[in-house]
Write a structure and sequence with these properties.
Blueprint (H helix, E strand, L loop, with lengths): L7 H17 L6 H9 L11 H4 L6 E5 L5 E5 L2 H11 L6 E5 L4 H10 L4 E6 L2 H13 L6 E4 L12 E6 L8 H5 L1 E13 L2 E10 L2 E4 L4
Parallel strand pairs: 3-4, 3-6, 4-5, 6-7
Antiparallel strand pairs: 1-2, 7-8, 8-9
Length: 215
Amino acid sequence: MTNKIVDPDEATRLRNQVVDELCADGTVSSPEIEAAMRNVPRHEFAPGTSLEKAYDTYAAVITKTDEHGVQLSSVSAPQVQAMMLEQAQMRPGMRVLEVGSGGLNAAYLAELVGEDGEVVTIDIDPAVTERARRLLDQHGYEDVRVVTADAAEPVPDLGEVDVVMVTAGAWDISPSWTSHLKQGGRLVVPLRMRGLTRSVAFTQATGGARPAPGE
């Protein structure tokens, strides 16, 4: 679709169709997340992808592979993004660190925390962060801070945040993530356990992060 004209009405129809489906199946329950997902043009953050693929409710869009075809970066499925946003329980004015950039999820986060909040997104791959920076700037999210660094280490000049959202697959919780969390802050991470990946929310408590109630 790189050289094709996108029908904005069709893109809006498909975006609303996805959100309607997520509301109907209970994945989206908060009006703030519903509004964010209706407002941000998902397909614009997956350039070169057909509208049908960009707006597949339950499928990710792969954005980078290596020479062997191994997936290196992707835009998560709408269902996964919505579920993790619900788990994060974000409110206006919060500070959020996203581990694993792409642009789209950072745009959702920016919508949710509003002008008084702050979003920092980090990735080790400069090609990924360059793409995220470009797409965020193109769509009015210039205030999102994009950092190229290894998230296994604390993010320079970040301090404490209310939410850490990990959008890359993980097998363990990095101490650097929890080091940035305020007391009572929330960590949302897709953990790989026994061959399956499950998004789990943790709350920062005395002595370390603990599974959030209901998780």
